[in-house]
Design brief:
Layout (H helix, E strand, L loop, with lengths): L1 H17 L6 H8 L15 E3 L6 E3 L14 H8 L2 H6 L8 H15 L11 E3 L6 E5 L10 H12 L3 H5 L8 H7 L1 H12 L11 E3 L6 E6 L7 H12 L16 H13 L2
Antiparallel strand pairs: 1-2, 3-4, 5-6
Helix pairs in contact: 9-10
Length: 271
Protein backbone atom coordinates (compact mmCIF):
# COMPACT_ATOMS: atom_id res chain seq x y z
CA UNK A 1 0.00 0.00 0.00
CA UNK A 2 2.83 2.40 0.86
CA UNK A 3 4.44 1.78 -2.56
CA UNK A 4 1.13 2.41 -4.33
CA UNK A 5 0.65 5.70 -2.51
CA UNK A 6 4.22 6.71 -3.28
CA UNK A 7 3.75 6.08 -7.00
CA UNK A 8 0.49 8.05 -7.05
CA UNK A 9 2.09 10.94 -5.23
CA UNK A 10 4.91 11.05 -7.77
CA UNK A 11 2.47 11.08 -10.67
CA UNK A 12 0.51 13.94 -9.14
CA UNK A 13 3.70 15.95 -8.65
CA UNK A 14 4.71 15.44 -12.28
CA UNK A 15 1.21 16.34 -13.44
CA UNK A 16 1.39 19.62 -11.53
CA UNK A 17 4.67 20.48 -13.24
CA UNK A 18 3.17 19.97 -16.70
CA UNK A 19 0.27 22.36 -16.11
CA UNK A 20 1.03 25.94 -17.24
CA UNK A 21 -1.13 29.04 -16.90
CA UNK A 22 -2.42 30.36 -20.23
CA UNK A 23 -3.00 34.12 -20.39
CA UNK A 24 -6.18 35.42 -21.95
CA UNK A 25 -6.02 37.59 -25.09
CA UNK A 26 -7.02 40.62 -23.02
CA UNK A 27 -4.16 40.02 -20.60
CA UNK A 28 -1.65 39.60 -23.42
CA UNK A 29 -2.73 42.81 -25.15
CA UNK A 30 -2.77 44.71 -21.85
CA UNK A 31 0.95 43.97 -21.52
CA UNK A 32 1.58 45.43 -24.98
CA UNK A 33 -0.48 48.58 -24.32
CA UNK A 34 2.04 50.40 -22.14
CA UNK A 35 0.30 53.28 -20.30
CA UNK A 36 3.36 55.48 -20.83
CA UNK A 37 3.16 55.07 -24.62
CA UNK A 38 1.50 58.12 -26.24
CA UNK A 39 0.00 55.88 -28.90
CA UNK A 40 -2.38 54.03 -26.59
CA UNK A 41 -4.66 56.88 -25.44
CA UNK A 42 -5.57 58.94 -28.52
CA UNK A 43 -9.16 60.20 -28.77
CA UNK A 44 -9.90 61.56 -32.26
CA UNK A 45 -13.28 63.14 -31.47
CA UNK A 46 -13.44 63.07 -27.66
CA UNK A 47 -15.93 60.25 -27.12
CA UNK A 48 -13.86 57.50 -28.65
CA UNK A 49 -10.55 55.64 -28.75
CA UNK A 50 -8.14 55.13 -31.62
CA UNK A 51 -6.98 51.52 -31.62
CA UNK A 52 -3.18 51.61 -32.00
CA UNK A 53 -3.18 48.11 -33.50
CA UNK A 54 -5.82 48.52 -36.21
CA UNK A 55 -6.09 52.30 -36.59
CA UNK A 56 -9.87 51.98 -36.19
CA UNK A 57 -11.93 54.52 -34.26
CA UNK A 58 -13.87 52.86 -31.44
CA UNK A 59 -16.81 54.63 -29.78
CA UNK A 60 -16.02 54.62 -26.06
CA UNK A 61 -17.94 57.41 -24.29
CA UNK A 62 -17.67 55.59 -20.94
CA UNK A 63 -13.86 55.66 -21.02
CA UNK A 64 -12.33 58.58 -19.10
CA UNK A 65 -9.43 58.98 -21.52
CA UNK A 66 -6.72 57.71 -19.16
CA UNK A 67 -4.28 55.08 -20.41
CA UNK A 68 -4.43 53.54 -16.93
CA UNK A 69 -8.13 52.68 -17.27
CA UNK A 70 -8.01 51.62 -20.91
CA UNK A 71 -8.56 47.91 -20.34
CA UNK A 72 -11.42 48.53 -17.93
CA UNK A 73 -13.62 49.86 -20.73
CA UNK A 74 -15.84 47.15 -22.21
CA UNK A 75 -16.16 48.85 -25.60
CA UNK A 76 -12.37 48.81 -25.95
CA UNK A 77 -11.81 45.24 -24.78
CA UNK A 78 -14.70 44.04 -26.96
CA UNK A 79 -13.03 45.63 -29.97
CA UNK A 80 -9.62 44.16 -29.18
CA UNK A 81 -10.84 40.62 -28.62
CA UNK A 82 -12.96 40.67 -31.81
CA UNK A 83 -10.10 41.43 -34.20
CA UNK A 84 -8.96 38.30 -36.11
CA UNK A 85 -5.40 39.56 -36.48
CA UNK A 86 -5.11 40.20 -32.74
CA UNK A 87 -6.64 36.82 -31.98
CA UNK A 88 -3.93 35.28 -34.13
CA UNK A 89 -0.94 37.26 -32.86
CA UNK A 90 -1.92 38.03 -29.27
CA UNK A 91 0.95 39.63 -27.40
CA UNK A 92 3.09 39.59 -30.56
CA UNK A 93 0.83 42.16 -32.25
CA UNK A 94 2.55 45.37 -33.36
CA UNK A 95 1.29 48.91 -32.79
CA UNK A 96 1.17 51.42 -35.63
CA UNK A 97 3.66 54.29 -35.48
CA UNK A 98 2.78 57.50 -33.66
CA UNK A 99 2.89 59.39 -36.97
CA UNK A 100 0.41 57.00 -38.58
CA UNK A 101 -2.00 57.28 -35.67
CA UNK A 102 -1.76 61.07 -35.55
CA UNK A 103 -2.58 61.29 -39.25
CA UNK A 104 -5.64 59.09 -38.78
CA UNK A 105 -6.82 61.10 -35.76
CA UNK A 106 -6.31 64.49 -37.42
CA UNK A 107 -8.10 63.34 -40.58
CA UNK A 108 -11.09 62.46 -38.41
CA UNK A 109 -10.92 65.92 -36.84
CA UNK A 110 -10.57 67.77 -40.13
CA UNK A 111 -13.71 66.01 -41.31
CA UNK A 112 -15.80 66.19 -38.14
CA UNK A 113 -14.49 68.39 -35.31
CA UNK A 114 -16.07 71.87 -35.02
CA UNK A 115 -12.79 73.47 -33.93
CA UNK A 116 -11.09 72.14 -37.07
CA UNK A 117 -13.78 73.58 -39.33
CA UNK A 118 -13.88 77.27 -38.44
CA UNK A 119 -13.48 79.90 -41.12
CA UNK A 120 -12.89 83.64 -41.10
CA UNK A 121 -15.66 85.87 -42.55
CA UNK A 122 -14.09 85.58 -46.01
CA UNK A 123 -14.35 81.77 -45.86
CA UNK A 124 -10.67 81.02 -45.24
CA UNK A 125 -9.75 78.31 -42.74
CA UNK A 126 -8.43 79.24 -39.29
CA UNK A 127 -5.84 76.75 -38.02
CA UNK A 128 -6.86 75.49 -34.54
CA UNK A 129 -3.20 75.16 -33.50
CA UNK A 130 -1.57 78.50 -34.42
CA UNK A 131 -4.90 80.39 -34.66
CA UNK A 132 -3.78 81.98 -37.91
CA UNK A 133 -6.11 82.51 -40.83
CA UNK A 134 -4.76 80.55 -43.77
CA UNK A 135 -5.32 81.05 -47.48
CA UNK A 136 -7.21 77.74 -47.62
CA UNK A 137 -10.83 78.12 -48.64
CA UNK A 138 -13.15 76.28 -46.25
CA UNK A 139 -16.41 78.00 -47.17
CA UNK A 140 -17.58 79.23 -50.54
CA UNK A 141 -18.98 82.71 -51.15
CA UNK A 142 -22.52 81.41 -50.57
CA UNK A 143 -21.61 79.89 -47.20
CA UNK A 144 -21.54 76.31 -48.41
CA UNK A 145 -18.62 74.10 -47.38
CA UNK A 146 -15.87 73.27 -49.84
CA UNK A 147 -15.26 69.67 -50.84
CA UNK A 148 -13.32 67.79 -48.15
CA UNK A 149 -11.24 66.14 -50.86
CA UNK A 150 -9.94 69.61 -51.67
CA UNK A 151 -9.78 71.02 -48.14
CA UNK A 152 -8.02 68.22 -46.24
CA UNK A 153 -4.87 67.95 -48.45
CA UNK A 154 -4.52 71.75 -48.32
CA UNK A 155 -4.90 71.75 -44.54
CA UNK A 156 -2.17 69.13 -44.25
CA UNK A 157 0.21 71.34 -46.22
CA UNK A 158 -0.32 74.06 -43.61
CA UNK A 159 -0.03 71.70 -40.63
CA UNK A 160 3.30 70.31 -41.79
CA UNK A 161 4.74 73.84 -41.53
CA UNK A 162 2.81 74.83 -38.39
CA UNK A 163 5.15 75.04 -35.38
CA UNK A 164 2.31 74.76 -32.86
CA UNK A 165 1.00 71.62 -34.55
CA UNK A 166 4.46 70.05 -34.54
CA UNK A 167 4.81 70.71 -30.80
CA UNK A 168 1.62 68.86 -29.85
CA UNK A 169 -0.38 67.38 -32.74
CA UNK A 170 -2.68 65.33 -30.50
CA UNK A 171 -3.71 67.79 -27.78
CA UNK A 172 -2.50 71.18 -29.03
CA UNK A 173 -5.61 72.26 -30.94
CA UNK A 174 -7.58 75.10 -29.34
CA UNK A 175 -11.29 74.93 -28.57
CA UNK A 176 -13.99 76.64 -30.63
CA UNK A 177 -14.31 79.29 -27.91
CA UNK A 178 -10.57 79.98 -27.88
CA UNK A 179 -10.43 80.25 -31.66
CA UNK A 180 -13.41 82.56 -31.88
CA UNK A 181 -12.05 84.74 -29.06
CA UNK A 182 -8.66 85.09 -30.76
CA UNK A 183 -9.81 85.99 -34.26
CA UNK A 184 -7.83 84.50 -37.10
CA UNK A 185 -6.37 87.75 -38.45
CA UNK A 186 -5.31 89.11 -35.07
CA UNK A 187 -3.52 85.87 -34.20
CA UNK A 188 -1.69 85.99 -37.53
CA UNK A 189 -0.60 89.61 -36.98
CA UNK A 190 0.43 88.90 -33.37
CA UNK A 191 2.67 86.10 -34.56
CA UNK A 192 4.21 88.32 -37.24
CA UNK A 193 4.89 91.17 -34.82
CA UNK A 194 6.51 88.81 -32.33
CA UNK A 195 8.70 86.93 -34.80
CA UNK A 196 9.19 88.90 -38.03
CA UNK A 197 12.13 91.36 -37.84
CA UNK A 198 10.39 93.62 -40.39
CA UNK A 199 8.11 94.75 -37.56
CA UNK A 200 11.04 96.07 -35.52
CA UNK A 201 12.31 98.79 -37.87
CA UNK A 202 12.13 102.46 -36.91
CA UNK A 203 13.42 105.84 -38.08
CA UNK A 204 16.06 107.98 -36.34
CA UNK A 205 13.57 109.29 -33.79
CA UNK A 206 12.33 105.80 -32.98
CA UNK A 207 8.99 106.05 -34.78
CA UNK A 208 7.93 102.58 -35.81
CA UNK A 209 7.94 101.97 -39.56
CA UNK A 210 4.77 100.23 -40.71
CA UNK A 211 5.92 97.38 -43.00
CA UNK A 212 2.70 97.57 -45.01
CA UNK A 213 2.76 101.29 -45.88
CA UNK A 214 6.49 101.93 -45.28
CA UNK A 215 5.48 105.04 -43.30
CA UNK A 216 6.53 105.97 -39.74
CA UNK A 217 3.90 105.84 -37.02
CA UNK A 218 4.85 108.50 -34.47
CA UNK A 219 2.62 107.24 -31.66
CA UNK A 220 4.54 103.95 -31.58
CA UNK A 221 8.15 104.59 -30.57
CA UNK A 222 10.62 101.72 -30.42
CA UNK A 223 13.32 103.78 -28.72
CA UNK A 224 11.20 105.06 -25.86
CA UNK A 225 9.42 101.82 -25.02
CA UNK A 226 11.07 98.44 -24.34
CA UNK A 227 10.29 95.67 -26.79
CA UNK A 228 7.79 93.39 -25.11
CA UNK A 229 4.18 92.30 -24.97
CA UNK A 230 2.73 95.78 -24.30
CA UNK A 231 4.54 97.41 -27.21
CA UNK A 232 3.79 94.48 -29.50
CA UNK A 233 0.07 94.76 -28.73
CA UNK A 234 0.17 98.47 -29.63
CA UNK A 235 1.57 97.51 -33.01
CA UNK A 236 -1.06 94.78 -33.44
CA UNK A 237 -3.82 97.27 -32.54
CA UNK A 238 -2.52 99.69 -35.17
CA UNK A 239 -2.23 97.02 -37.87
CA UNK A 240 -5.79 95.86 -37.18
CA UNK A 241 -7.12 99.45 -37.32
CA UNK A 242 -8.48 101.23 -40.44
CA UNK A 243 -5.29 103.34 -40.51
CA UNK A 244 -3.22 100.38 -41.72
CA UNK A 245 -3.51 98.97 -45.27
CA UNK A 246 -2.38 95.51 -44.12
CA UNK A 247 -5.82 93.95 -44.59
CA UNK A 248 -5.61 94.50 -48.35
CA UNK A 249 -2.72 92.03 -48.57
CA UNK A 250 -4.34 89.68 -46.03
CA UNK A 251 -1.62 90.90 -43.64
CA UNK A 252 1.15 89.40 -45.74
CA UNK A 253 4.16 91.74 -45.77
CA UNK A 254 5.31 92.32 -49.34
CA UNK A 255 8.36 94.49 -48.65
CA UNK A 256 11.71 93.01 -47.64
CA UNK A 257 13.62 94.04 -44.53
CA UNK A 258 16.24 95.63 -46.79
CA UNK A 259 13.64 97.77 -48.54
CA UNK A 260 12.17 98.95 -45.24
CA UNK A 261 15.58 99.77 -43.80
CA UNK A 262 16.36 101.77 -46.94
CA UNK A 263 13.18 103.78 -46.44
CA UNK A 264 14.10 104.44 -42.82
CA UNK A 265 17.63 105.47 -43.81
CA UNK A 266 16.29 107.81 -46.51
CA UNK A 267 14.06 109.54 -43.99
CA UNK A 268 17.06 109.95 -41.68
CA UNK A 269 19.06 111.56 -44.51
CA UNK A 270 16.34 114.11 -45.22
CA UNK A 271 15.97 115.22 -41.60
Amino acid sequence: MAEWLSNLSGKLRNFGKSVTYSKSLTEELAEVLDPSDARVAIRPLGDDWLCPFTGKRVLAPAWNGSSLTLMKCKAITDHLTSQPELQKLGGRAQLKTFEELVQIAVNWRLSNSPNFKLAAPDGEWVCPYCLQKSSILLKNWDGSATDLDFFIPQAWKHLKDCAQYQQDPVSGAKSVQEIEASGGDRAKVSNLVENDPRFRICDAEGSWLCPYSARPVARINLKREPWGHELQQKIVDYVMSPDCPGKYSQYNVERTAGELKAVAAKKMATM
